[in-house]
Structures are given as C-alpha cells and as structure tokens.
Amino acid sequence: MATAVALPPATDPTTSPIRSVREAVPADLWDKQVGLLIRDCPYDSVMAARVLGQGYAYLLTAMHHRGERLGLAPSKLVDIGVHTIILDTVAYAELCERFNGGIFLHHVPDAEMKDDGSVMRTADLIASDGWEVDLPLWEDAAKCGPCRPGNDAH
Questions:
Q1: For the whole model, what pTM was predicted?
Q2: In the chain, what are the domain boundaries?
Q3: Integer Cα distance of 123 and 131 in angstroms
C-alpha cells in the first residue's frame, strides 16, 4: 500500500532567488542535448531548451532529496528531457558524481501511470528548492506520473 507524502508548498518566486540549471550544466553539454532533442522530437530550439531545463531541474531535485523516498514524478514532457539526460550515460554519471555524492540515481519507471498528484507535488518541490519551474510543461500530466513511488530512484 502506497502512502502519500506531503511535500512542502512552492516558494513564492517573487521573494525567493531562482536558480537556473544552465549554471549547473556545461554549455557544450547543454548544446549537445538540446540538439539531441531537436533531432529526436518535433521541437524547435526554444522548446527543446525548456524540456531539457525542466529535466535537469527534476533530476537535481531528486538528487537533493535522495533517501527521502518522496515518490517524485515528472510530467510526460519533462520525462522526455530526463530521458535525454540519462541516455547520455557518461555525462549522466558525471552529473551523479557532482550532485549526488557519486551515487548513481537509477531510473525505475512503472508501466502504469499513477493518479496520486505526485507530478504537481514534484513541481512544487522543485520550486521550493529554488529551481525555475516552467509550469505549462508540468500540466500535461497533472495527476499522473510514470515513476515508481516510495523508492530511492526517479
């Protein structure tokens, strides 16, 4: 039986400093991964950068909250950015080394989507951690997410 975990509410962006993932990702890697999204998805460079940025914000938040078993979940669109990041395995391992204490953050998707509000709670937590949240990219799956709840993965 899964239990819902209450996450803190989002911070007010007018009073909280907003961090940009562009400060955490080397420019050459960013450009490469934006290019991969443009190649593989029907995105222009603006949409690719939005999706990638939210993918990084999601992963960096998951790493920051490692061990808390919050059952974080990306939206369908954000998950595309996450997959672009984790499929570049050398760069992803380096990200885990730098931001997750060298511990590889595994991706453990479920086949069935869950309807527990975890996607929007995840967006709130990302905002609480100070990352910019591109809300329209999260609303595509406001009540469902593909990742397994309650484990120490994403």
A1: 0.82
A2: 21-147
A3: 9
